[in-house]
Amino acid sequence: MDLNTFEQQLRLPSPLTRIKDSVLDEFNIELWLKRDDLIHPIVSGNKWRKLKYSLNHALNIKSRRVISMGGAYSNHLHALAYVGKALGIGTAAFIRGERPKQLSPTLQDIEQWGMQLTFVSRSEYRKLRDYQGYDKLPGMQAGDYWLAEGGASELALRGVGDIAFELEQDYDVICVPCGTGTTLAGLINSVPNSTRLIGFAALKGADFLQEDIAQYLTEQNDGNWQLQLGYHAGGFAKLTNEVKQFILAFEQRHGVMLDPVYTGKMLFGIYDLIRCGGFSAGQRILAIHTGGLQGRRVSV
Ligand SMILES: *Cc1c(COP(=O)(O)O)cnc(C)c1O
Predict the structure, then answer these.
(1) CB–CB of 224/196 below 8 Å?
(2) 246: left (phi over 0), alpha (psi -120 to 50) or beta
């Protein structure tokens, strides 16, 4: 299947859901969710947007295999393995840590879809992040196309920027969860300067994101964004009981599933900021539901 045919099967532009409840009423806040989680049951969320132009490029230059890296629950690798299979392009990945006896559900899927897995130690994994000449990566062959951890690249920025073109009304604030910060950076580059952007870090101690994001920005567009570093709920892939209860209550109230790694923490943070006066009455907020629900099998 070619890339355009695959994209035609996706639910794009992704739908919008307006959230209504007593907290939003009390503080007079309009909250909308951009449902990127509904783009596709597997290739959901920002991962399609981040992969689209890179895969297109890889196909155009006749790459035989796309190679990347990630952890045992990586949404990025899960999406890549699935799309690779659909498009008939090979995929491979370096996985952090030793091969476990029992593979995570995520790794079971991706291996079944034909991705070749190479397990590397944590220190080797860190080194892989620093390889400048990707042709020097261990095991790289002619015709391999390298995708950085999380799919971060200039082309990924363009892909997530497409979210901005789908918006039909103005928002005062756009909120997005952050792993590598690529999605936030792509949005900062693509929305009008009058829109404020807030990124919610899923990792603990994610100060480095400030610089990582700044380096992705085009000059016309900086300043009107901020990071919230305090809503990691204990760290990446960890969860406090408070956030867990919030996620379950939100799902019951609104019928929208949240993933515990990213979107659950972001929405917890948004409601907390609303209560602390972080938004002005009358403001319209858009939160990007970046998907990630395949990870919901293992947590909460
Ligand atoms: C990967 C991912 C993110 C983080 O995106 P970045 O561009 O790396 O910041 C957020 N939400 C979900 C559900 C993801 O899978």
Answers:
(1) yes
(2) alpha
Place 132 in a pLDDT band, splitting at 50, 70 and 90.
Answer: low
Compute the distance from residue 29 Cα to the ligand 1 centre, in Å.
25
- Burial class of residue 39, CB neighbours in 10 A (0-12, 13-18, 19+): buried
- Identify how many contiguous H helices and E strands the chain contains and give both numbers: 11, 10
Render pLDDT for 25-54 as a digit per residue (tens, 0 to 9): 999 999 999 999 999 999 978 999 999 999
Distance in Å, CA 135 to ligand 1 centroid? 27
Q: How far apart are CA 258 and CA 289, in angstroms?
A: 8
The pLDDT score that the predictor gives to residue 300 is 55
CA distance 5 to 156: 20
Radius of gyration of the chain (CA): 19
Pocket mutation for ligand 1, best pick of 14, 158, 183 (most atoms within 8 Å of C-beta): 183
Q: Which of 34, 46, 184 to probe ligand 1 with, by most ligand atoms within 8 A of CB?
A: 46
Burial of 256 (0-12, 13-18, 19+ CB in 10 A): middle
| Tokens of residue 198, six digits | 């807030």
> For residue 271, how far is the Cα from the chain centroid?
20
